[in-house]
Amino acid sequence: HKEVVGTLDGGLIDLQDETGKNTNESIFMVFYVASKPDDRQYGFGRELMISAYEYAKKEAEKRKKKFIGAAGECTYTSRNFWEKMNWKRCYMRHADNICSGGAWSGA
To answer: What CA dihedral angle connects 46, 52, 58 and 59, to 10 degrees?
Structure first.
């Protein structure tokens, strides 16, 4: 029988400048990567990310956009995964003085 052992949710996002004008650039925004606990450490999540990243690059090219990388939320439960993917962690301070963390990988 067949079963799902992992999943990824994300999409290609076109970027805009502070005035709302299209910059002709795109990033792949990762919402989550998940796998069954018993199936972790076999590379499924990594393979999902690599495949999705390559798909996003090709899709950006089709749309005549410059692909500049990928971004996603980094939490205490996902930190090890992103570090193994060699992504860098970054922090932002919002206008309401809230600091949030994310993961970033340049193209």
So the answer is: -160
Q: pTM of the entire structure?
A: 0.75
Query: How far is it, in rounded angstroms, from Cα 57 to Cα 27?
Result: 9
Whether the CB-CB separation of 1 and 43 falls below 8 Å is answered with no
Residue 88: both structure tokens together: 């860098």
Strand 99-106 versus strand 88-93 pairing type: antiparallel
The single-letter code of the amino acid at 50 is I
The closest alpha carbon to 11, from 35, 32, 38, belongs to: 32
Question: 3-state class of 95 per DSSP?
Answer: coil
Element (H, E) at 43: none
Q: Which H or E run includes 45?
A: helix 44-62
Residue 3's φ and ψ, nearest 5 degrees, are -145, 155
Higher pLDDT, 54 or 92: 54
